[in-house]
Amino acid sequence: MRAASTLRTATKDQGPKLSRPQAVAGKVSEKAMTPSAASAVPPVARPAGAPRPVPRPPLRLRPPRPNRRAERSTAIDVGRVALFFTVMYERSSVAELAESLRSELNRYSVGGKLPSSRALVERFRVSPVTVSRALAQLAAEGLVVTRPGAGVFRARPRTAEPAPGDTSWQEVALSAEGDGEIVPRSVDASGVLACLAAPPSGVIGLNSGYLHPSIQPERAMAAALARAGRRPGAWERPPMEGLPELRDWFAREIGGAVAAADVLVTAAGQSALTTALRALAPPGAPVLVESPTYPGLLAIARASGCRPVPVPVDAEGVRPELLAAAFEATGARVFVCQPLFQNPTGAVLAPARRAEVLRIARAAGAFVVEDDYARALGHDDAGPLPPTLAAEDHDGVVVHVRSLTKATSPSLRVGALAARGPVLDRLRAIQIVDSFFVSRPLQEAALELVGAPAWPRHLRAVAAELRHRRDVLAGALRRELPGLTLPHLPSGGYQLWARMAEGGDDTAFAAAALRAGVAVAAGRPYFCAEPPGPYVRLSFAGVSGAGELNEAVRRLRSGAGDAVGPGA
After folding, report:
1. Which helix (H) or strand (E) covers residue 151, if one does?
2. pLDDT band at residue 27 using 50, 70 and 90 as cut-offs
3. Burial tier of 25 (Cβ tally within 10 Å: 0-12, 13-18, 19+)
4. What are the start-end ranges of the H helices in 141-208?
5. Which helix (DSSP H) or strand (DSSP E) does residue 535 occupy?
6. What is each CA distance from 504 to 53, 300, 484, 565, in whole angstroms?
7. 215 near 462, Cβ under 8 Å?
8. Interhelix angle for 128-140 vs 68-104, to 10°?
């Protein structure tokens, strides 16, 4: 190796060139670091005749090991922020460009051609994508017409809308009853709307029948939907009865002798109940229902022209002796019940009553429609859940209804009807006439969801969260509103059924609660006849957490406490 003191003559621009570093004994191979740019430091004067100093190799320091995880996290966060602002800017640009073009349309005659996309890009200094989206928005509004290969043209203006006609004749037509029509087929959706309507801003909703977004499996559903869209044939027409794999999953969940061939995939529980009542009860026929019961069921029965007949429920479910008396008195051929976590009471049909209900219905030659809506909403202190009535039915008495909606999202409208015998053909025919089939991508997504490892984890998380919320709300009611008593503390479901003090008014309480900033459901719509007392239903599923539950009860105490009843 050349001696360190031997130097090559340096050029004026490059400065002195450093020699290669000597090899270091050992196994570690080191490389010389590239020297950084020199700072502007004045040179030190060298005495005349002094030897030129020998430059030393730069100090070689091992750089710290990069934190790849932090770099990835930072990159992801920066990417998300950049994407967010890019999307927001793009939306703003599209709206502004659309507004500018909209204001200039009067310059062009009808059928006149607008400037080309390239001209608009150059004029407004926006991207071609922004121009394309703005023109698409104007086309959707009917202001322009796009002709591929020719350009964009001003559309013919819409003619003025005619004055509204006289529709008062419909009141007579809709209320006129035929000779054989016993029950008017009126549609009253007020009880359902009370649970579906989103509360106004600032109002805490204790009336919702669905999980709050914070406890919905949003990530798992998004991943399932993405995987479903990539499945072969995902957008083809599905079998009329539903995907075989999904029918098989529902059959295994129902249990007993129910097979995949006995299952129809439906658009969630409400659609399944509608199909069941249309298949089993002709217009004008009595239908036995639990009292109190789900208002949506009463709306379905009345809209079908059927006459709901109440059968009282206590803490152990429907009372068999009263069920037998109702069958005998009315000649009904259908009984609709919720044996597990009944809505609104939360009662579970006692083991001794389960066989009695099936025996009584079989003796009356009637069907039992089992609405098993809350099978996935058991609390983590509920213990082992009883089997479905369908699993214990050997004679085809039970028509089973199941849904994925309550445990997931209001928009996952996938459920099932299960039945055995000739009734299945009628159920299938009515469903096909009404809706053809359930969207295949939605079925594929449901199948992906329930088959993913995230599904049991989600159910466990929901079980723990619902129990916690139940305890928080029940404790707050006992402290702040002792006039609202809880006859039964449920071990599943998402609501508390509270009785008001004697003389209380549930409708006035609900109105006062709304003025105080809390939406609750009055108990009267849950009864198909005169209610035995004033009740109110309080749901704990649709709020963000325990904090909102405590705040809701404080608002009820200050703003609606007087409506609970005298002496409360």
Report:
1. strand 151-154
2. very low
3. exposed
4. 169-175, 190-196
5. strand 535-539
6. 102, 29, 10, 4
7. yes
8. 50
What is the spatial distance between Cα 516 and Cα 202, in angstroms, rounded to a whole number? Answer: 10
pLDDT digits (tens, 9 = 90+) for 517-568: 999 999 999 999 989 999 999 999 999 999 999 999 999 999 887 777 655 5
Which tokens is 512 given? 């006062």
Q: What is the pLDDT of residues 254-267, one digit of tens each?
A: 999 999 999 999 99
Contacts of 212 (CB under 8 A, 6+ apart): 541, 542, 543, 544, 545
Structure tokens belonging to residue 474: 């029940």
37 burial (CB, 10 Å; 0-12 / 13-18 / 19+) is exposed
Burial degree of 85 (CB within 10 A; 0-12, 13-18, 19+): exposed
Quick check: pTM over 0.85?
A: no
Q: Which of 353, 237, 225, 245 is nearest to 290 (CA)?
A: 353
* SS3 of residue 332 by DSSP: coil
Six-digit token string for 421: 């015998």
* Side-chain half-sphere exposure of 365, counting CA atoms within 13 A: 5
Residue (of 450, 455, 444, 454) closest to 225 by Cα position: 444
CA distance linking residue 87 with residue 80, whole number of Å: 10
- Beta strands per DSSP E along 302-412: 307-314, 317-318, 334-337, 367-371, 398-403
Query: Tokens 């097979």 appear where?
Result: 259
292 with 526: CB under 8 angstroms?
A: yes
Phi/psi class of residue 295: alpha, beta or left (left: φ > 0; alpha: ψ in -120 to 50)?
alpha
The per-residue pLDDT for 5 is: 41
Strands (E) in 471-512, as ranges, are 495-499
From residue 238, alpha-carbon distances to 222, 425, 436, 442, 450 in Å are: 21, 18, 10, 11, 19
Query: Is residue 413 within 8 Å of 405, Cβ to Cβ?
Result: yes
Query: Could you tell me which of 370, 294, 372, 345 has the C-alpha nearest to residue 490?
Result: 345
- Ordered DSSP codes for 404-472: SSTTS-TT---EEEE--STHHHHHHHHHHHHHS---HHHHHHHHHHHTSTHHHHHHHHHHHHHHHHHHH
Say whether 524 sits in a helix, a strand or coil: helix
The angle subtended at Cα 495 by Cα 399 and Cα 443, nearest 5°, is: 45
Which contiguous run of DSSP H or E holds residue 362?
A: helix 351-363
DSSP class of residue 378 equals B
pLDDT in tens, 174-191: 666 655 555 556 677 776
Cβ atoms 528, 296 nearer than 8 A: no
- 255 contact partners, CB below 8 Å, separation of at least 6: 387, 388, 390, 391
| CA 490 vs CA 245, 316, 471: distances in Å | 33, 11, 10
Closest Cα to residue 335, out of 352, 359, 316, 305?
A: 359
Encoding tokens for residue 496?
């508390």
